[in-house]
Design goal:
By secondary structure, the protein is an alpha/beta fold. Helices cover 43% and strands 20% of the residues. It has helices spanning 7-25, 30-37, 41-53, 116-134, 173-181, 190-201, 261-264, 266-277, 283-291, 295-319, 335-348, 351-355, 368-380, 384-391, and strands at residues 27-29, 57-64, 67-74, 80-86, 90-97, 102-109, 141-148, 185-189, 210-215, 219-225, 228-230, 323-327, 358-361. A hairpin with a 3-residue loop joins β4 and β5 (90-97). The radius of gyration is 23 Å and the shape is globular. It starts with 6 loop residues before the first helix and ends in an 8-residue tail after the last helix.
Length: 399
Amino acid sequence: METPGSQSSLHRANLERVVRAVRMAGSLTQAEIARTTGLSAATVSNIVRELKESGTVEVTPTSAGGRRARSVSLSGDAGIVVGVDFGHSHLRVAVGNLAHQVLAEETEPIDVDASAAEGFDRAEHLVNQLVAATGIGPDKVIGVGLGVPGPIDVESGTLGSTAILPGWSGTNPRRELSERLGVPVYVDNDANLGALGELVWGAGRGAADLAYIKVASGVGAGLVISGRIYRGPGGTAGEIGHITLDESGPVCRCGNRGCLETFTAARYVLPLLQPSHGPDLTMAKVVRLARDGDPGCRRVIADVGRHIGSGVANLCNLLNPSRVVLGGDLAEAGELVLAPIRESVSRYAIPSAARQLAIVPGTLGGRAEVLGALALVLSEMGDSTLLEGALTAEAPALA
């Protein structure tokens, strides 16, 4: 039995710090591990050697700053994680290892009006299919990250009222999928997972404080504060789409008038262009037409950008993030939408907050949420299983 403050408990704590740092980053040099954990170079070297001997990590030659270095990543045999993303009209599944490598990925269309049971049937089938395709046994699956386009009640785990997946309201996605797959499931909304995906793999890398804005059928924000997703006590933090822009404006699905969503979400924006561009218009098509010079689409994109900028200015004044990442189809519009966002931010945000803010497009596109689901498992899973091999050996005296 370990005594707090004893040599063995200190050794275990140091092992956990190193494994956690590598697990979250995918791979790090030993110098980077030392900077991340605050441990000395000698302690890191001893721990890495111990973890390598136990089969927990792999060490490969690399270079950093022109010098030879050793890259440390979790062993390919340590396990795999699965990401599942339910969208308005798609189901996307990815399988990755603990070194942040995506091993298999597939997307298929899904009927938004289908029942939750049918959706979970499809997800179960696709997960099993992709895990089998990797050639790795299902017993190696450590956990599943699940993204849904709606608020999750933190206490009950149920999906709140949503007009995007109306047949799913009141369901418990975590419990449903966990019972089907027999592994732990971690669930979050799509905006939070988009933020995690961009933070770990995309345009948010290196930022400790950022907001990921997703504009699709609804509008949401994933907030990262001090490197961690901020969800709020009820799990509804980041509902930027329901900031009031005009209290006499259109009635929103939430019951209020003039929410940001009513000026920016696809369900409200597309009808403005359908009389002149046809009923089959999508936001992705509007973006393509705008980039090709269509004046109507360019005007609508610019208006949407200015409205989003008003919401971002509010975030700046409240949270002072260093970076805002724009996701979804709208990000493909580039400066056609980013310039109006910056214009509104410079007008409405506190000048010092606006000067420190970088507004950039996401780099992961439609993959942000499913990669964020993988990152969710990597951030929530414990280290006990990974450390079993290392902890069977006697702790070195100086580690």
